[in-house]
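User: Predict the structure for this protein chain, please.
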Amino acid sequence: MLYVVVNGFWGLRGESVPGIAERWYATLRALADVDGSTFERWHEAGADLPSDPVVESSVPALADYIERTNTGPDLDVIGYTTSLWAQNPGTAHVSMAIHAGSTSRYAVNSVVLAFRSHEIDETAQVIRRAPQILRVLAEHWEIDAGQVYDKHQYRAVAERFDLANSAPRCGRAVFLSARRAALAPEALPATYVHTAHDGLVIDLTGDGTQSPAIETILEANIRLRAAGAMEELPIPFDRATF
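Assistant: Here is the predicted structure, written as structure tokens:
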């Protein structure tokens, strides 16, 4: 069964609903450029059925959806949480969840893209392009750290280093914000792709041609952690990035 996740995290950063909607809209457009057949016709989160309403791909429509799915007091502190899903013929089921706009010193902001399928496997082009998708998320959400992983890779790293869910780590690819990137060792068996805001994607997949061995991923984590590039943001948070 296919289960691949691309995600990113950052600390406190207050944002308005229109600002979050603009980031989301730009992300959806960029994802469609990566794989138009997978990333189109996004539905509101519901029962994951074709009858779930389709959300128009526009800033006003996304802003309205965010507001409809977030009610109650102190949203400028706790942030806004919402998600969309898509599944088109011959493609994996994909969901995109965001938690953004939090100014809490204890609540992590995040963006998560998850692929699931019983028919599609990791040879699908969209999965091969997962490091490119990580770059899209990193640049549009200005994340602190992010990764690409499958379930076995995530579990192996979590158990080896006893990490909290939001702790920075390297999967089959990793994104590092500017200060993290400056600490990254240069000789990992990977492709290094520089991004906007002086970030860095380190891709262990051979440009999408392979899924790296668990041992390779663990070694990359060891070296990145030894270099200081995997340090967690201090809690309580005092900034969005390392």
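DSSP finds eight helices and nine strands in the chain.
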